[in-house]
Fold these 2 entries.
Entry 1:
Amino acid sequence: MNTKDFTKLVYKDVPDVDFLSVDRETCTACGKCVIVCPMFLWKLSDKKAELAEGFEERCLECGACWQVCESGAISFDFPCGGKGIVVKYG
Amino acid sequence: MNGGSMKKYDLIVVGGGPGGSIAAKTACELGLKTIFFERGTRPGEKNVSGTGLSPKCFRDFDFMREMNLPHERVATMATLHLSGDDNVETNFFSFTPSRNAPYQEARQYLTRNVYRSELDPWLAELAVAAGAELQTSTKVTEVTRDSSGKIDGVRTDRGEEFKADLIIGADGVISTVARTAGIREKWLASEVAMILNVDFGAKREDIDDVIGGNALHYWYSSIFPVGYSFFSAEGCHIGLGCYMDWWKKNPHYYLDKLFELEGVKQQIRLCKAEAREFQNHMVTFLTDPTTTYGDSVMLIGDAAGFACPFEAEGVYYAMYSGMLAAQVAKKALERGDVSRRSLAEYERAWRDSPIGEEFIGGAAIEGFVRGIGFNPDIGKWVVPMINDAMYGLLNVAESHTASARNLPGLLMPYLPTLIDEVERDLLPLALAMGEPPSRPPNETVSRALKALLPKVLPFLARRAARTENRYSEVTSPLVMEHFLKPFAREKAAQARKESR
């Protein structure tokens, strides 16, 4: 079983504002965001956390990466009203 | 800022989930002019839940008895499955409502499983019917302050301002209201869990045939944190979760294991269920909510951290705290004092309610959940122990007499770990349910257990070993190791002594 396939089952009205970002200066490359993200949107490059291309279309807006970021490098705020993740069968 | 567009209310509720809607509904019924905001295009669009509404919801809220949602399934049985470190299921146990449960709903079912995408809009409609104004597709970006620094309303991402003397933050685990009102920045990683959830669709008849009312399955494992499969009328939610400070590998590593479990695969296969949606959300697991209000602000539901720290039930606590916050709002506005000191009444109210009751044993519950429920490592001995106990009692591999003689020996190796675990996580939980004892008796109890059990079980095992079995050998390797070898040595020593 590869539950990674489930990550295609996400519905969004893609927001056009930055709701998630990382401050590379503050990032200590602890890698916790890479571990917890169930959508595989984070990687470490040049010893800094980096968001995947097109993360806006896939991010579940759960805030897990922001929650585990101890250095406070990751900023997260919900996308603007009416935009972002649409949970059809919550 | 366009001052003319400012609208004045008695109460602003930020969030259109079950908590926000019940707060708005209650406030309107008490005569307060109320508006509530929802980020989604409709309530329920941003929410994920395990789906089970507890009987408490229907005991405490009259209007809930009118609930009639299209995809509800009533769960009359829950099943706990155990699996070992080879990811093979070894046991399952079920339970149903007790005939002696304290009230009617509790005697009828365990939970009523529904979709939040159906429940939340229905609850919001009740609030609107009571006179509340609902504004959807609107994100509240911050609370606003007057020239003296006193909180006097909220600002939205549309640039509008709304004014009220009181704000109720019903905006979830990552609460903008809590943050911008200066009540709380962020939970600790140890206070929050994340729950991954996969939604499946299936035909009602197929689920009726395969699952029926046995609609709550828990998958307790030695290799992943406890998983679940909960069924609604035409679908199910399958997932697992753990504390944010627990994850050592990506959650999909554990999710893969859950979906490799034969029992889970079987449910999906037999119900012909198809995956429809992937979800993830955070839930608080607090020992004691301490940040639930501030000047001009009360927090309810997930924003206050009111999810039950045992199995993360949230809807009931959100609704109940919403009702209490609205009642306190009415009184605070009447006495013209919305200061932190005045709103302390809210904390007294929730502590003196089923919410506070849930948190009396908070630290002990957390110990239990962290120590056992969310701890696959403990499954490595708990699962085989439970299995050996069942096997020892019920197997037909030998005569029942021989099996009975073998039983103490089968269980003996688990004793030291079991007693430690009972002392660490179970006794505190049991004790937390009563009045706090003057002196913690758990040490006394466990000392007695530690002294007693290792004497009783070997005694039984030795008695068994001394008795000759006519038709079968006592061959359990554990029994051999722990009892027969020492016994044989004892016998040999005795023989040597006698021969001298």
Entry 2:
Amino acid sequence: MLLVGLLLIVGGVNGLSSMATRAVVAGCDGSVVNSVYSPKRQALAGIVGSNVASRLIQCGENIIVRDNAVLSSRHAQGQTPPFKVEK
Amino acid sequence: MLNVLRQRLPSINIMYKLVMIVLLGFLMLGITGVGVFIVMYSLSTMRIGRDLAASHGISAINSSRLGGVAIVVTFLVLLIGMAMLGSYSLGVLWDTTFLNLWSTIILCVLLGAAEDFRPDLLSPHFRLVAKLLAFSLLLWVTPALVPQSIGIPLVDGIFAEPGFAWALCTLFCVGFINACNMADGANGLFPGVATITIGVLFLEYDRPAEGALFITCLMFLIFNVISGRFFLGDTGSYASALSSPAMASWVWRRATSPQDSWPRSYLTPVLSYW
């Protein structure tokens, strides 16, 4: 039973990670971030999880750099980056 | 046969509560929420870590003190899942301050877990000395965590001397853990306050680790409000009691402009309440 629970959690996280990747590939144009209440996303992450995921994707949008490895953060100086820098 | 089955199955009332919990979990967090509740339910039904109803005075049913273990397991699965499956990079990998801090928290959580799984395995003196040593070492090797002033004139005079500041902060951290542990055993309100505090910090700073911790605490709160099966235990008290000052310390160090002063105003009464 414990294993089933853990697998469900990992499945949910995997789905959200794929969603975040799609958002980055789409250039963070809002198509993923704004679809908070789409049925598929609700089944995957629910109301709270979907909103949290959107906030995290928006946060990642501010610090992910795709063309070069130089980190250019729009966040306040001193705030640590939560996402890997992507080439 | 039917009688044996009836004895093994939960009563209608408990089944009704469990269905409610699963529905709420699905509504709030989708299949991830259902998974979190299944993990929590399976841990709450384990024979190990059981407490009698009379041992706390605020619980009408026999409960489990593995609530903290449930929170830690869920949080770690979410965090490791985010790191392995997504583009999230753990803070401890690029900041030694976080690495030292979280290593100390993990050490204290392990001390608590030993007590939860096997009561009286470690003597209170041993745990107290271990915590004192861990924190004195942490604050010694990471002096950035010790505030140089807190805005109170007389106390700031003491904090101006690094040795006194180090000793005071060590005592505060260890005392704070024990105070939170007692508060959880007395009224069980601790998870609610922790959820609100971490939730507000997440809404302000949008850090993934706080998001995962907020979701975990929220799910635990919903599960426990409906079922009343858990106490945080030493693991949960130590973890929650240390995570919040850790975040407070981070916020304190980061707050350099007047616009950032609200977290100080917000966290001071929260920490005072605890």
